[in-house]
Specification:
Number of strands: 6
Strand content: 15-25%
Helix content: 25-40%
Domain HTH hxlR-type: 12-110
Keywords: DNA-binding, Transcription, Transcription regulation
InterPro entries: ArsR-like_HTH, HTH_HxlR, WH-like_DNA-bd_sf, WH_DNA-bd_sf
Radius of gyration: 17 Å
CATH superfamily of the largest domain: Winged helix-like DNA-binding domain superfamily/Winged helix DNA-binding domain
GO molecular function: DNA binding
Structural class: alpha+beta
Distance between the termini: 30 Å
CATH class of the largest domain: Mainly Alpha
CATH topology of the largest domain: Arc Repressor Mutant, subunit A
Strand order of the largest sheet: 4-3-5-6
Largest sheet: 4 strands, antiparallel
CATH architecture of the largest domain: Orthogonal Bundle
Protein name: Transcriptional regulator, HxlR family
Length: 164
């Protein structure tokens, strides 16, 4: 991990936020955990990240209160996976706003396609990150589906702490 400034004691809340969220892997890991991919191997394979880098990031995210380790049964064996905390679930509007920004201000690769964010409560696509542009309700993970045409999937997000 490259050396950088420590903003954990910054008076500015943006600086303190960047102290926790400033590494791009953090938001990508939160995205995948909200998609229900909280097992180490699923994260490693989906993100194409080395085990060492992923281990360090996960440890830091647990320490920062973004993720928690949760036991699950794998046959007769108890294992652990990562689940989103309320702090991670509160990043949903930021993730959705980043997706909207990316579609508007970056060039779509040839194999890409529009990622629709469907608010399952009203069934409509939203064009805002925090409040549904159709019905005005606050958007929460358990009520969101992301349609990713480049993967040919519809992914329903999970609530904070869920093991979808």
């Amino acid at each position: 991990m490259p050396l950088r400034s420590d903003w954990s004691e910054a008076l500015c809340p943006i600086g303190r936020s960047l102290d926790v969220l400033g590494d791009p892997w953090v938001l990508l890991i939160v995205r995948d955990v909200l998609h229900g991919r909280g097992r180490f191997e699923a994260l490693r394979e989906g993100l194409r990240i080395s085990e060492a880098v992923l281990s360090r990031r996960l440890h830091a995210m647990v320490e920062a209160g973004l993720l928690e380790r949760v036991d699950y049964q794998d046959g007769a064996r108890t294992r652990q996976k990562y689940a989103a905390t309320e702090a991670a679930a509160d990043l949903l509007p930021i993730l959705q706003q980043l997706a909207l920004w990316g579609e508007k201000h970056t060039e779509m690769p040839a194999a890409g396609g529009h990622m629709a964010m469907i608010h399952e409560v009203c069934g409509e696509e939203t064009t805002h990150g925090e409040v549904c542009s159709s019905c005005g309700q606050t958007l929460v993970a358990e009520a969101m589906t992301w349609v990713k045409p480049w993967k040919n999937v519809r992914v329903t997000l999970g609530p904070a702490g869920s093991l979808v």
